[in-house]
Amino acid sequence: MGFSILVLLGELWKNWDVQLFVMLSLFLQLFLIWFASLRKRVSSQMLHISIWIAYLTADWAAAFTIGLIHFQGNTEKVDGKNNNSLYSFWAPFLVLHMGGPDTITAFSMEDNELWRRHMLRFVAQTVATGNIIYHKPPPDKWLWVPTILVFLCGLIRYGERVWALYCGCMDKFRRSILRDPDPGPNYAMFMEQYAQMVEDGYPTRIETIEEPELEQDLHSFEVAQKGQLQGKQVIKDAYRFYQRFKGLIVDFEYGFRERNKSVQYFLSLQEDDAFRVVETELSFIYDAFYTKAAILHHGKGYFIRFLCLSFVLISFGTFYVWDKVNNISKGMHFQSRDIKISYALLLGAITLDVISILMIISSKWSVAFLVKDYESKEPTFSNKVAEKLLALKTRWLSAFPEAPATSQFMFRPWSRSVGRMSLLNYYLDQRHPKCNKFLDSLGLRLLFDGITYVDTYMFNQNMRKLILSELKQKSKAADDPQKIKNICSARGDWVLYSYGVEEVLELRNWIVEVEYDECLLLWHIATELCYNAERRWYDEDRNISKALSDYMVYLLVMKPLMISNIAGISDLRLRDTEAEALRFIRGAMPDLNDSGSIFTQLDMLCQRMMSVLITDVRPKDVKGTRSKSVLFEACRLAYRLLNLPKEVNRWEVMSRVWVELLCYAACHCRPTNHVQQLSRGGELITVVWLLMTHLGLGQQFHLEDGPTRTKLIVQR
C-alpha cells in the first residue's frame, strides 16, 4: 500500500511538477499584491507571519521553477509528445514574478542591505531564462513575440526591484540626501583683496549678512491657519516635510531656521490635523524603504509601467490569435492543461499590472506629484486631477457609512492601535513552567506571549488631544538648546515640577532616583493597583493612564529594541519581579484557582498587595542588591498616589507622567528602529517621535540659524 502511494506521488510529480510550481508562483504574486500593503495598517502577528512566508516562498518558487524547466528541457520526450514545448514560454513569467509586486520589495530593512545578492540573482536568473529560450525556443514563430515581450517586462520589473532595494539601503539613502559639494566663498582670494585694501590705506571692514530664504522656503502654510486641513493639503504638506526632514532617519542635523518654521506650522494645527500630517509623512517613509513607490512616481516611472502593461496585452493578444488560428487546444502537440496555464499566466500578469497601475494612480505619491507646485495660486490641471483622485477615495469610504472609521483600514496610514500588556494579568495567567521552558528552547516564547497576553487599544481622540497638548506646551517653553535638552531628558519630573505641590514633588523619588526601565515597572504596577482600587469610577485620564502604562510595558517586554538605549537591565529586573510576584501569589492566594474569572483574581491580588504593611523601610533595604524586583516598591508608590491631596487629580498627574515617559522613550530610540516598526503596523511611539521633532523637541537641531554671506565693505 505504501509503495503504491509513493509510485502515485512519483507519477504526479513527473507529470505536474512544473505546472504546480508555475501556478504556485502566480498565486503568491497575487497574494502579495493584495495583502502586502496591509502590514503597515494591521498589527496582527498572524498576518505578518503569512506575508513573511509568502515573501520568502515567492522568490524560491520562481527560481526553483526556472531550474525545473531547465532540467526538463534536457530530458527526452515522453511517448513522442512534445510536453515541454510551452515551458520556454513560461520561463519569462517567472522572471516577471521574481520582480515582485510594487507593494513589497523588502520585508524588513535588512533586506535592503542585501541588494547585491538580489542583483547577482537577477543576473543569474536572466542568464538561465535566456539559456532556456535559446536552447529550447518556442515551437512557433508566433510565440516569439509574446515570449520576448514578457521577458522584457520581467527584466524591467526585476530591475526595478533591485534598484528599489538599493535606494532603500542606508548608505544609498544617506548619500541621496547629501547636497552637492560646496567649497564656500574663495577664502584665499577674499583675504588677498582684504589685505590689498588695507595696504592701500582704504578703511575696510568685513560684514556678515544672512542669506535670504529660497522662495519655496517662504511658503507659510496659510491654509493651516484656517481650520481643518483638506486631504490634498495634508498630503502636500506631509510630502514637503518628508522631503525636508527625511535626513532624521540617518541622524542628519538641521538648523534652527528649519526648526522654527516646522514648530510654527504644527503649533497652528488642531490635534487631528497634526496627527494626519505626521501619519502621512510616515507613510511616505514606509513606501521609500519597503515598496517601489519612490522609484515609480515620476514621469519615467509612469511611462515604464504603462509600457509593461502594453507589452503584456500585446502578448495576450498574440497568444490568443495563435491559439485560435492553429486550433492548438484541440491538436495533438500540446496538452489542454498547458494552454490553460498559459492563459492563466497571461491574465495573471495583466491583473498584476492593472492593479499596480490603479494603486499608483490612487496613491499619495501621485497626489504629491501632481500638487508639487507649492506656490501655485490658480487651480492648475494637476491640482484638479489630484482633487478628483481624493474625491474618489472619499466616495469609496462614504459607500460604507455603517462601518466605523477604525475598521476602514484600507486607507489608514498605520494600525492606529496601541498594544497592551498587563504584568499582573501575566503573572496570574502563567503557563505551566515546563511549557515555558520548551518554548524558550525553541525561541518561541516571546511570539506565543504576544499572541496570548497582548491585546490592543484603539488610539482615540482623547489620547491624541492629551499628547499634542503636552507636546505643544513643551514646544512653547523650549526656546533655546539647553531647554530643549532638559525637556527631552525629562521622564516625568518636568510634569511633577509644574504642579508645585510638595506631595506631588515627592513622587520624583520614583523617577529621578531610578533607571528608566525600573521607573516604567514601578509606575506600571502602581497604575494597575490604583486602577483596580477605583474600578467603578470612570475618568478619561484614568483610562489613558492605564492604556499608556500597558503600552510602555508592552514595548519593554515585546519590543525591547524600541527602548534598548535606555532600558538598562530590564530583562533581569523583569525576571526578578516575576519571581517575587509568583511567590507572593502562591503564598498569599493559595485558593487562586477557585477565585473565579481573571478579573476577580486581579482584584484579589491587588487587595492583597496593598494590604502589605507600608513602612519607612524600603524593600531595597531588606533585599539589598541580591534581587532587582520592584514589586513592593511599586506598592509604596501606589500608596502615595492614592493618598495625594484632594485638590490634586491623581489620574491627571499619572496620565501626564506617562505621556512624558513615552516622549522620553520616543526621542531616545534609534530612528532606524522607528522605521523598522512601520512595516509591522506602526507604533504610537514612532508617531510621537516624529511629532516631537516637528515641534522642535529633538536633539537634531544645531545653533546655526542658516547660511550667511560675507561682504567686504570699503568706506570712502
UniProtKB/TrEMBL annotation:
InterPro entries: DUF4220, DUF594. Residues 52-426 form the DUF4220 domain. The chain crosses the membrane at residues 20-37, 49-69, 141-158, 302-321, 341-361. It comes from the Eukaryota. The keyword Membrane applies. The keyword Transmembrane applies. This is DUF4220 domain-containing protein. Keywords: Membrane, Transmembrane, Transmembrane helix.
